[in-house]
Amino acid sequence: MTFPSHDETTAPEGSKALLENSKKAFGRLPGLHKVLAESPQAFEGYQILHKLFSETDFDAEELTVVWQAINVENECHYCVPAHTGIAKMMKVSDEISDALRNETALPTAKLEALRTFTVQMIRERGNVSEAQMKAFFDAGYGHRAVLDVILGMAQKTMSNYVNHVAETPVDEVFHPLLWKRGDAPLKV
Predict the structure, then answer these.
(1) Alpha helices by DSSP H, the chain
(2) For 66-123, what is each residue's pLDDT tens digit?
(3) Are 102 and 76 in a shared domain?
(4) How many percent of the chain have pLDDT more than 90?
(5) Looking at residue 2, what is its pLDDT?
(6) Per-residue confidence at 188, pLDDT binned at 50, 70, 90?
(7) Would 2 be classed as within a structural domain?
(8) Is the confidence at residue 184, as pLDDT, over 80?
(9) Quick check: is 46 in a domain?
C-alpha cells in the first residue's frame, strides 16, 4: 500500500510549518519527512526526539554509532544511506561508517562497546543482563549513556518502522550510499 508523500502544499495544516523548516534546514524535503507529514504529531514527535538525542553527551562518532547500529539491526533501507551521508556532514570517518554498514570491527574498543550495547538493547528489548551492563560501564559509559541509548532507540524506531511500512524511497542525494545487509547479522 502506497503511503502519502507530502510537500508544503498537500500536507495537513499541522505539518506545513514542519515541512517548511525541513526544507530550510536541508535545502530539500527528505523523503522520511514527506511521509511523516501525514501525521503532524508523529512528525513533530520524531523531530523532538532527534533534537533531544542530538543534544546528549554523545559526540558525533557516538551519535553515529547508536543511529547506525539501530538502522543496520532494523535493516532500514532508507536510514542507513541517510545516516551515512549525515555522518559525512558531521565529519565522522569513513572507517567508522563502513564498519557500521558492514558490521565489522570499529576502530576503538569504546565505540565497539557502544555498538554492542545498543544492538543488545534492541535484540533483548531492553532486558540486558547484568554482565552486558557491566561491560558497557567498563568501557567508560554510565547510567546516563544507557538512558541516552534508549532515547536514540525511540527516535530510530520511529523512522525505521515508518520507512518499512511506507517503503520510503531513498532520497536521490543518498543513492550513491545505498545499502543492503549482508548475509549474516553482527554477532554480539
Answers:
(1) 13-26, 31-36, 40-54, 60-73, 79-89, 94-102, 109-123, 130-138, 143-166
(2) 999 999 999 999 999 999 999 999 999 999 999 999 999 999 999 999 999 999 999 9
(3) yes
(4) 95
(5) 87
(6) low
(7) no
(8) no
(9) yes
Considering the domain architecture, whether residues 42 and 62 belong to the same structural domain is answered as: no
What is the span of the domain harbouring residue 125? 58-177
Q: Is 58 exposed, middle or buried (0-12, 13-18, 19+ CB in 10 A)?
A: buried
Buried b (16+ CB within 10 A) or exposed e, 59-69: eebbbbbbbbb
d(CA 44, CA 25): 15
pLDDT > 70: what percent of the chain? Answer: 96
**Cell numbers for 38:** 501525514
Whole-angstrom distance, CA of residue 136 vs CA of residue 188:
13
Task: Report whether pLDDT(63) > 70.
Answer: yes
Mark whether 73 and 41 lie in a shared domain: no
SS3 175: helix
Give dist(CA 187, CA 93) in Å, integer.
23
Q: What mean pLDDT comes out for the span 127-135? A: 98
Distances in whole angstroms, Cα of residue 133 to Cα of each of 61, 65, 99, 107, 188: 21, 18, 23, 21, 13
pTM above 0.85, yes or no: yes
Q: Are 87 and 64 in contact (CB under 8 A)?
A: yes
Domain match, 74 and 154 both: yes
Statement to judge: residues 28 and 103 lie in one domain? no
